[in-house]
Amino acid sequence: MYKLPRVLKSLAESFERLPGIGPKTAARLSFYLLSVPESFLVDFANSLTDLKKKVLRCQICFGVDEEDPCYICSDEKRNQNLICVVENPLDIIAIEKTGKFLGVYHVLGGVLNPLHHIGPDDLKISELLVRVEKRSKSGEEVEILLATNPTMEGEATALYIKKEIKNRIFDDSKLKLSRIGSGLPVGADLGYADEVTLSKALSGRGDF
Amino acid sequence: MYKLPRVLKSLAESFERLPGIGPKTAARLSFYLLSVPESFLVDFANSLTDLKKKVLRCQICFGVDEEDPCYICSDEKRNQNLICVVENPLDIIAIEKTGKFLGVYHVLGGVLNPLHHIGPDDLKISELLVRVEKRSKSGEEVEILLATNPTMEGEATALYIKKEIKNRIFDDSKLKLSRIGSGLPVGADLGYADEVTLSKALSGRGDF
Asked: How many CA atoms lie within 13 A of A113 on its CB side?
């Protein structure tokens, strides 16, 4: 059996712990790094050690930023009464890239998943309820846009949150719940679409 | 546009420079690391900074090890007159895993590739020639197993090395050149094999 230098082995083990990276890719990446300039390795290492120190969780929306509260929550131009509920901070980036959303966010930190023992207490759901309650007491119109992924778990989580909000807020005349639109992605081919997506596209048809 | 914390951005940029990792995967990996224990990040960072310090290039075979010469080149049980020429150190691992090779190695550090401006001087070819010349002067039987990949560039590199060795070694009665076997991989289906592989499998047929 080949005796790998220990540091190469431990580097490969670190890579292997990352999602989507198997043992072969991990070995390939580690060997690749033998050929890069030292300065690149130092920068990479510094980013890793600084990560937890310099990235804060916003205590309002649980997104990530260098400040707490984050720059979105503290932006006065944003509509604080339009809260988009997402699974994780990467979803915020995707939505922000569209430039079409001018409200604020709430990061759940995942979705309900009984198979992986993830229940409501593992997510930022109670924090969302408190936040919604507080905003709806102001008397202004409040909209909660549930933007969890259109997967089985994402749908279940959206339904659960809907139920919890309805249970909690007695006066829901000023509260609107919405779900992110589902249907054919742009550039798709009708003939190749799966039947669930197509059903959603049909039931969610819009005026033209 | 979403304002990403600088350290997350620089971490994603580091990941993005790795082969086979695009911007989306880089972002996903960086965000994933926000959720791992601090100790893992520290280990990962230490492996990166120690990499160049603790991994040495063997000055005989150009493989990697913690010592120079490497443990394979300094192993007296190995046949120093059977030299397997490979493209990179990862190939050594693959061959060592079989446990079937008891010679030594020579790492070229790549293959000839005119499109990427990689010529003979960029590879450890002259070092190989010196090594072969030295060994063949001992009067013993010497075998050079050319185990570059069976790709266009790998074949061209093997042919180039063959020609150079023939040019250099006048007395080649004790020198044997061989090429790693090409043919159908185990578990393959004849009907799906490409014609070049199948041709190689036919011309390289063995006794049964």
From this structure: 14
CA B20 – CA B30 distance, rounded (Å): 15
Helix (H, G, I), strand (E, B) or coil at A166: helix
SS3 (DSSP) at A111: coil
Q: Are residues A11 and A99 in the same domain?
A: no
Question: Contact A203/A181 with Cβ under 8 angstroms?
Answer: no
Q: Which value does ipTM take for this structure?
A: 0.83
The tens digit of pLDDT for each residue in B106-161 reads 999 999 999 999 999 999 999 999 999 999 888 889 999 999 999 999 999 999 99
Domain match, A10 and A87 both: no
**Single-letter code of the amino acid located at B81:** N
How many domains does one find in chain A?
A: 2
Domain ranges, residue A42: 6-52
The model carries a pTM of 0.81
Are residue B172 and residue B136 in the same domain, yes or no? yes
HEC profile of B73-104: CCCCCCEEEEEEEECCHHHHHHHHHHCCCCEE
B58 is a domain residue: no
- A47 and A83 share one domain: no
> HEC profile for B142-195?
EEEEECCCCCHHHHHHHHHHHHHHHHHCCCCCCEEEEECCCCCCCCCCHHHCCH
User: Would residue B56 count as lying in a domain?
Assistant: no
CB B32 within 8 A of CB B21: no
Q: Tell me which chain A residues have a C-beta less than 8 angstroms from the C-beta of B14.
A: 40, 43-44, 47
Q: What distance in Å separates the CA atoms of residue B30 and residue A51, rounded to the nearest whole number?
A: 9
Mutation for testing the B interface, residue in A9, A18, A91 having most B CBs under 10 Å:
A18
B203 vs chain A: nearest CA distance in angstroms? 31
Task: Find the CATH number of the domain harbouring B42.
Answer: 1.10.8.420
